[in-house]
Design goal:
alpha/beta, three-stranded parallel sheet, about 40% helix
Length: about 160
């Protein structure tokens, strides 16, 4: 978890890591390697899954099932993984719906599942815990957090 006071640079750090910003002074060092170019950064990004604060920016397909399939290899293993994940995250009943018709909590869970299905070692998230209460519990609740932490090496949540 990345914590800090307002204005301390949490969002800037995340934007640098995801390549949305380019450092014009100072340096970005990951695992002891100073990154001096966008190409060097892209090498590290292959192992990072990013869940933005607004998960709808990830949605490009007309239904939840196609959204989860998008970017994965076509295989029966992928299909089974998608079905198992959608059931675990309580999205199995909405697979035919348009992602934009889901509740905010369901959209957040769908975005997280999309990132998890890519099987990245590191997940960077922005305020995924923000949605709470009844809607969040219906959309997966505590099981989502446990599953997320068990599916990747490092989970960074930006509050």
């Amino acid at each position: 978890m990345i914590l800090g006071a307002n204005g301390s640079g949490k969002s800037t750090l995340m934007n640098l890591l995801m390549g949305e910003y380019i450092a014009y002074r100072g340096k970005l060092t990951i695992s002891g390697h100073t990154l001096k170019s966008r190409q060097q950064l892209q090498q590290y990004q292959t192992g990072i899954g990013y869940l933005p604060q607004d998960p709808t920016t990830l949605f490009v397909k007309d239904n939840v099932l196609d959204e989860l399939r998008y970017g994965l290899p076509e295989s029966s293993d992928s299909e089974q993984t998608i079905l198992t994940g959608s059931k675990s995250f309580k999205l199995d009943s909405v697979l035919g719906q348009n992602p934009f018709d889901l509740s905010g909590g369901q959209q957040q869970v769908l975005g997280l599942l999309k990132v998890l299905l890519k099987k990245t070692a590191n997940i960077i998230s922005r305020r995924t815990h923000q949605r709470s209460g009844y809607e969040s519990k219906r959309a997966g609740g505590p099981s989502v957090a446990r599953t997320t932490q068990s599916q990747c090496d490092n989970y960074y949540d930006h509050p």
